[in-house]
Amino acid sequence: MKNFGKNVSIKAKNQPNLSEKDIFINVVDILDQCWERSNQFTSEWGFDVSNYDEPFYLVIENLLYIKYGEWKTDIILWWAYNRFNENNELMPIKLNDHEEKTQEDVIVETPEELWNFLKRIDKLDKK
């Protein structure tokens, strides 16, 4: 492994400068696809890849934690891993506005809607 770096060439992808929102949507979408693929291996083919995939998920989760903090990462991971109930129905996220003393069930179907939900919470926190 000493010479590992000699043969590695890392190049930036030919993408225009992406916004944080674009990168977030891309990462969450890929995470969702990977999670679905892992579950498909188990449910359709009986092949459990969790021991193989677990380190990759931990890296992603930890990077999300570094960037977005604990509570936002919890929401992101809930969306990626647990947004569907046992009947495959999309579950709502509860939005609590403590200042207004209101609670709302919000359906978040896409990574972009998840981004918008997190930004909406940011605005509530700044009140």
Question: How would you characterize the overall build of this protein?
Answer:
It is built from 3 helices and 2 strands; from the N terminus they run H-H-E-E-H. With about 130 residues, the protein is mainly α. The protein has one domain. A hairpin with a 4-residue loop joins strand 1 (about 95) and strand 2 (about 100-105). It is globular and about 50 Å long.
Which descriptors would you attach to this protein?
127 residues, mainly alpha, two-stranded antiparallel ribbon, 2 strands, 58% helix, globular
Summarize the structure.
This protein is mostly helical. It has helices at about 20-45, 50-80, 110-125; strands at about 95, 100-105.
Whole-number average pLDDT?
85
Note the run of SSEs as H and E.
HHEEH
Residue ranges: pLDDT <50 for 5 or more in a row?
none
Determine the strand fraction and express it as a percent band.
5-15%
Determine the number of helices (DSSP H or I, runs of at least 4 residues).
Answer: 3
- Name the assembly state: single chain
- Rough outline: globular
Class inferred from helices and paired strands:
mainly alpha
Q: Please provide the count of β strands.
A: 2
Q: Which SSEs are present, and which pair or pack?
A:
Layout: H1 20-45, H2 50-82, E1 93-97, E2 102-106, H3 111-125
Antiparallel strand pairs: 1-2
